[in-house]
Amino acid sequence: MAVALLPLVYLAVRTAEAGADRIAAELWTERVGLLALRSLGLAAVVTVACVLLGVGAAFLVTRTDLPARRVFAVLAALPLAVPTYIAGFAWVSTVDRLAGFWPAALVLTLCSYPYVFLPVAAALRGADPAQEEVSRSLGRGGWQTFTAVTLRQIRPATAAGALLVALYVLSDFGAVSILRADTFTRAIFVAFDLGFDRTGALVLSSVLVALTVLLLAGETASRRRGARYARLGGARRNAPRLRLGAARWPALAALAGVAALALGLPAVSLARRLAAGVSRPGALAEVLTAAGNSLSISLAGAALTMLLALPLGLLTARAPGPLATVLDRLAYLAHALPGVVIGLSLIFFGITVAYPLYQTRWLLALAYATLFLPLAVGAVAGAAAQSPPALEEVARSLGRGPLAVLRTVTLPLTLPGIGAGAALVFLTGMKELPATLLLRPTGTDTLATELWTATAVGAYAAAAPYAALLVAISALPTWLLVARGGLLDKEDR
Amino acid sequence: MSVSVRRSTAALVATGLLAFSLVACGSGEDDAADPGKPNDKKITVYSGRNEQLVKPLLEKFTQQTGITVQTRYATTAQLAAQLVEEGDRSRADAFLAQDAGALGTVAKRGMFTTLPEATSAKVPEAYRARNGQWVGVSARARVLAYNVDQVTADQLPASVFELTDPKWRGKVGVAPTNASFQAFVTAIRVQHGEQKAKDFLAGLRANEPQIRDNNIKIVEDVHGGAIQVGLVNHYYLGEIAKEHGTTPDGLKAKLHFFPDGDTGALVNVAGVGVLKRSAQDADTQTFVDYLLGAEAQAYFAEQTFEYPVMPGVAAPAYVPPLAELKVPTIDLNDLDTLDATVALIKDSGLVP
Predict the structure, then answer these.
(1) CA distances, A72 to each of A8, A61, A157 (Å)
(2) Is B236 annotated as a binding residue?
(3) Interface touch A187/B352, C-beta < 8 Å
(4) Where does B156-269 have alpha helices with state H?
(5) What is the pTM of this model?
(6) Closest CA in chain A for residue B53
(7) Element at A412 (helix H, strand E)
(8) Domain containing residue B292: CATH number
(9) Is the CA virtual torsion A413, A419, A232, A65 positive or negative?
(10) Same domain as B217, residue B81
């Protein structure tokens, strides 16, 4: 847990250094109030939009007779592989004078709705249709059953996804800086640029932590205790698919439209840039080295994150209580901090505590663990919660020791969750830029840093292949996530 | 069950091993935990200047001298923050920065050593630190880029302050978060006082400027016709021409140099400072001297489209020579009073 606390300790140290007067001068301004409101507003708008889009898309691909629904299941998850800075850039180069709150909300929604789509689709797919059948047999109509039963079944998955979206919006810098939506994170980045003002930037970051606490408290309070919708016993059975009839075409068009905006537009924009410019990326060896570095650092980040997430996830699922809740919430805190703050806090940690690790891949992997722990914890806890604890109790009663039970029962049952968490962390790590820039070993380039280097001097054509490769590599774990949600299974009826 | 359990445990272990081995095999030479010793023919440079712009130059340096350069690239602002955070445990030997203000920030923390008199003296006084802690290696002029189809030469303002006139409403591109814009605002403060700077920013804001993230987007939009004029540095024109496979003459965007010592014609530098720990490192000293030598100076003119700071090296072809510019009389050393500038820019509402 110390991992998640690092940035908080760092912020506390640096903010305290600033002194009360400076803090007051930074914070008690109209500007900070406005920024806070706007950040929360953006988070709220994007979260609502992502829930509507994510749940809608999930319902269409899992519960209706939509044509080509497996194709759409993959397309709906793929935007996860598109970094917001690429999407934002694609939008401003396509639509003239695009800037501000609503365009940023649009781009962020298109990039982050898979955070809702994936868990909800998996939940819809895995939910026990018996409850819905009971509801119908008791005289409720289709719509009533949907709102009273189905929506409740997928509520934990929706809430988990929505929380990730909200925190992601708070910490995003790519879309908001390119589209100039004035949020806290943009203000923090600007503060670093303006007069190289570290202190001001860090004081602002501590407000972001406060906002996150608020958000987490809200989410915790709205959670329903002991709501668990695991399927206990019985053969796996799919819910009957809703016949869309004539409505299938508008539904199809809607999903295709979303995919076109989230994936097609960036792809076309990149291709146009490649055709228009004469710059080219470095030799193939350079591109491959960058890709190799991206892969190995993100894999190490994913492995380290899973190692840390496993105990926490199991604790949350198996021994829920105040301790587990507090630990779990702490993991989320660092997730809402901008990468540049995480980067600086780990520089601080590397310089003062772990000097031999400083500017090695390990410290960067640790930064990814700090940033993306909640993604992993959520996946592990979700999988553990769906596997009945009775199995472990039986194993214990048959004389196996706790470690043996962990190895032979708990771990195998949570394996899908571990896989999903690792995939999610991996692909998010591939996209990460600010912390990577600060913490990478000197002289090590990744796809994301190469992309940044090329676009900073306007060499867009040189940047395009890196972007394409980044998205292509990230698509693989996305595919795994879709497959693991059971969305690619053949119909088993 | 037991077979599948064993298999999945094995898979889990294998995945973990794979990840770790990948890291391990990649971490051989480039995870340089070695901060380097003096005179070991190896230096570490933190570069706030873009990799695409300086990497070829650093490769030439290695060819010439046999000294290998480990370079850490990030934005100038991020590296300044990183250096300050690292303090005296930094592994950097030298900091190559985009901007005199960033060099001043690190110098103020007492992290730079004083460069040898012989090195400092090579650079004209206007382009180096008064206390000898950094030197400029290339110069960049502030200009007004304009779209030649939309603005005629006789419409161009004689002073940057005319851009607050209503006739430029909605037509001026600015990048207020950019360090070069800050240096320009500081220059207004230094030359004309706080009030004039404040009034200018308020006027600019009231004129609904086209705000962009950075200079390169402004020049692109001027070239594309989305913005009529923009306040930028001169070399972006060269960069964009390069990307379009043409020369600056082939672009719709042209440069206007403000005349008569107007603040809008400020000349700033990109420069280098040496960290205290490397005060005695001959390799680092060789590096600084190389940057001021004929080869590097010609490189800055030809490849990055900047002005060489050393007298006698020709400027890029598409701009008037540095000596012919009517630059304002401003001491770059005064540009490190950034705090007041930042406060003004924040209050102006041009940034979040």
Answers:
(1) 40, 7, 20
(2) yes
(3) yes
(4) 179-192, 194-206, 215-224, 236-243
(5) 0.83
(6) A457
(7) helix A411-431
(8) 3.40.190.10
(9) negative
(10) no
Its domain, for residue B105, covers: 42-139+267-320
User: Taking the CA atoms of chain B, what radius of gyration do you get in angstroms?
Assistant: 23
CB-nearest to A453 from B22, B33, B52 is B52
pLDDT tens track for B1-40: 344 444 444 444 445 444 444 444 444 434 444 556 777 8
Characterize the bridge pairing of strands B210-211 and B229-233: unpaired
To the question of whether residue B235 is assigned a binding role by annotation, the answer is: yes
E-state strands within B148-298: 172-174, 210-211, 229-233, 253-256, 267-274
- Residues near B332 by Cβ (< 8 Å), separated by ≥ 6? B100, B126, B127, B128, B136, B268, B269
Query: CB–CB of A277 and B44 under 8 A?
Result: no
User: Which contacts (CB < 8 Å, 24+ apart) does range B312-320 have?
Assistant: B316/B235, B316/B238, B318/B237, B318/B238, B318/B247, B318/B248, B318/B249, B318/B255, B319/B141, B319/B234, B319/B255, B319/B257, B320/B257
**Structural domains of chain A in order of their starting residue, each with its CATH number:** 2-224+252-484 (1.10.3720.10)
Domain check: are B306 and B173 in the same one? no
- In angstroms, the CA B236 to CA B238 distance is 5
**B4, A407 contact by CB (below 8 A):** no
Would you state the pLDDT for residue B14?
A: 44
What Å distances lie between residue B103 and B142, B233, B343, CA to CA? 19, 18, 20
**Does ipTM come in above 0.85?**
no
**Within a domain: B94:** yes
**B61, B122: one domain:** yes
> What confidence score (pLDDT) does residue B314 get?
86
Least confident piece of the model among A189-198, A361-370, B193-202: A189-198
Considering only CB atoms, B244 lies closest to which of A177, A278, A300, namely: A278
One domain, residues B150 and B248: yes
Domain count within chain B: 2
